[in-house]
């Protein structure tokens, strides 16, 4: 432990189980000396194991539906009350698509579900930051980080409406990053992570094949969840004070690689 976050306090959302990136971020933040509040939607809490994480990190849980302004106001005010002051970091690790869960292809999306996808997966980040601004909840040089995916820029089969949600999420980070930077020197960034074997990730049709494809294409291989957690910690820390309004690729080089020897060999062998 290097105490990189010693004295810092914040909110970590979205920890469902030990496979969750948010779960690993919480463990790393705790090890680096941070104190924080955990939060998730009541339904997700019933499905997951967040109480176990709460005990490990000595972190209280404040349930909140991230689409509800009322819940978020209680979350941010409650977190500041418990932690004894304003916040230094917030992690947004929230995403949901009923269309993906129900196997809807892009041409037959249920538009009510589509709107829910956008609300849960992207607008919730805007709502979090708006509540934080209203309550003046951030310390100067605070940091807000949201987890994104390269489907915000590229078309991927079976990612359907989540692609638009991630694009919106990244746009919100830029716009609110400009606003909060001027108001309070608060940084706002997104991390575009490799395909990761979380509960949400593995629920996407064809995930295993794409995971292997990305792993073979990326010069460094897929970035594991633990490494993504390390990256989040670096963005919470004072080492990245002047990084803001960025979508940061954390994907082993996948996003800038055209083709790899492994993919060429795979295609060549398949044709023989």
From TrEMBL:
Where along the chain is NAD(+) bound?
A: 14, 20-21, 94, 166
Is the keyword NAD in the record?
A: yes
EC top class, as a word: oxidoreductase
GO BP annotation list: fatty acid biosynthetic process
Molecular functions per Gene Ontology? enoyl-[acyl-carrier-protein] reductase (NADH) activity
Which reaction does this chain catalyze? a 2,3-saturated acyl-[ACP] + NAD(+) = a (2E)-enoyl-[ACP] + NADH + H(+)
Keyword Lipid metabolism appears in the UniProt entry: yes
**Entry's EC annotation:** 1.3.1.9
- Stated family: Belongs to the short-chain dehydrogenases/reductases (SDR) family. FabI subfamily.
What PANTHER family does UniProt report for this protein, alphabetically?
A: ENOYL-[ACYL-CARRIER-PROTEIN] REDUCTASE, ENOYL-[ACYL-CARRIER-PROTEIN] REDUCTASE [NADH], CHLOROPLASTIC
Name of the protein in its database record = Enoyl-[acyl-carrier-protein] reductase [NADH]
Q: Which organism is it from?
A: Hymenobacter swuensis DY53
């Amino acid at each position: 432990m290097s105490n990189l976050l010693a004295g810092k306090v914040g909110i970590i959302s979205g920890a469902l189980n030990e496979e969750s990136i948010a779960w690993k971020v919480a463990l790393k933040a705790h090890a680096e000396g941070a104190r924080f509040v955990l939060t998730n939607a009541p339904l997700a809490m019933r499905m997951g194991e967040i109480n176990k994480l709460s005990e490990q990190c000595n972190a209280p849980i404040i349930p909140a539906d991230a689409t509800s302004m009322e819940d978020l106001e209680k979350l941010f005010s409650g977190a500041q009350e418990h932690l004894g002051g304003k916040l230094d970091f917030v992690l947004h690790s929230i995403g949901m698509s009923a269309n993906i869960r129900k196997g809807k292809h892009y041409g037959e999306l249920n538009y009510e579900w589509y709107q829910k996808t956008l609300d849960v997966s992207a607008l919730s980040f805007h709502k979090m930051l708006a509540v934080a601004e209203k309550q003046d909840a951030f310390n100067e040089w605070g940091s807000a980080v949201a987890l994104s995916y390269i489907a915000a820029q590229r078309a991927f089969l079976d990612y359907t409406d989540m692609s638009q949600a991630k694009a919106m999420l990244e746009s919100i980070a830029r716009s609110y990053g400009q606003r909060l930077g001027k108001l309070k020197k608060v940084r706002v960034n997104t991390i575009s992570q490799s395909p990761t074997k979380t509960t949400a990730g593995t629920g996407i049709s064809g995930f295993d094949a794409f995971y292997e494809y990305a792993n073979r294409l990326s010069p460094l291989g897929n970035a594991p969840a633990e490494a993504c957690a390390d990256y989040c910690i670096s963005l919470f820390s004072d080492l990245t004070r002047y990084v803001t309004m960025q979508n940061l690729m954390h994907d082993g080089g996948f996003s800038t690689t055209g083709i790899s020897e492994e993919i060429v060999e795979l295609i060549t062998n398949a044709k023989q």
